Amino acid sequence: MIQNLPHAAIDKAQWDRMLLRCPDRLWYAQSWVLDLCSPGWEALVDDDSGAIMPLTHRRKYGVRYLHQPYTLQQLGVFAPARTEGLDDAFLAAVPRHFRYWDIWLNRHMHVRAARDMRLVPHTNQELVLDKDASALRAAYSKGHLRNLRKAGDDPPVIVDDVGAVEFTQLFAATTGRRYGGIPKGGLPLLERLVGEGLRRGQCRMLGVREGTHLVAAVCLMEWEGRVILLKSACAPAGTQRQAMFHLLDRAITERAGTGLILDFAGSNTASVARFNTGFGAASSIYLRLVRNSLPAPFRWFKR
Predict the structure, then answer these.
(1) What CATH number is attached to the domain comprising 9?
(2) CA–CA distances in Å: residue 226 to residues 60, 82, 160, 276, 300
(3) Taking CA atoms, which of 34, 89, 203, 245 is between 20 and 30 Å from 216?
(4) CA-CA distance, 87 to 108, in Å (whole number)?
């Protein structure tokens, strides 16, 4: 039986144990990550099947609604065994007081669209690091190999001592400004998330400096067989040095042969997707689910 647990009733240690039993588990669904990104989150739990689903929510204009927290790409149902109808059963069990949903499901979910539901495909890119470094590099695009060779005998020096504050400041001035979409409070949240990831040993930072100034960096979250490229940032000085190509090449080659999955947390932006697939990554689809069951006068409500 699927139960709805308010935040105070969630046993966080038990939640994390249940998540670890799910082969489709993702870093995003750990209790500490949810606590930072969606304080007060609720949950759906089925003790019989062991399946779980976090309910990340907000309130606006007095309306409680489900939303996808900033920095978390895929949530939804996680299960030890995904049986037919399980995902639909969980969605049907979402409490009725959440009359508006805008959430991103993990790629393993199979959902049948309802009349008041809209499913929008999003693209991710993943690379299995199951070969040695030379074999993985052989799958790079010609353009990526050319960009790596441009540095000749003077490649950028890659450092791993980048801190949360330094990274967030660079991100705000580069990627965040370029692509936008950062909600109010998003940058402080990113800083806290990176800081806590470093403290827990789940985060690896790689960067390039010109003198004392950080000009490019990647934030990698590694957990349970998967390395997620959570965020990246590159200043014009880093672009001139082809820094992002060298940073991702380092992330790939230092884990070559491990069988880990490098998850690019991919993008629908064509240029970003090309950059990711240029390293040999394959694309997959996950779904954004928008559901509006508000009464007719309030269906204008948007996130």
Answers:
(1) 3.40.630
(2) 35, 20, 19, 16, 39
(3) 34
(4) 10
Task: State the total domains in the chain.
Answer: 2
Q: CB–CB of 90/2 below 8 Å? A: yes
Same domain, yes or no, for 208 and 151? yes
Neighbours of 132 (CB within 10 A): 12
Residues 199 and 100 placed together within one structural domain of the fold: no
Q: What is the CATH number of the domain that holds 162?
A: 3.40.630.30
Both tokens assigned to 133: 């470094």
Give CA separation, 231 vs 106, 167, 214, in Å: 19, 9, 15
Q: Flag whether 278 is in a domain.
A: no
Identify the three-state secondary structure at position 65: strand
Asked if 157 and 48 sit in the same domain, the reply is no
81 is in which domain, residue-wise? 2-122+286-298
Examine the domain organization and report whether 144 and 88 are in the same domain.
Answer: no
Give yes or no for a contact between 52 and 18, defined as CB atoms under 8 angstroms apart: yes
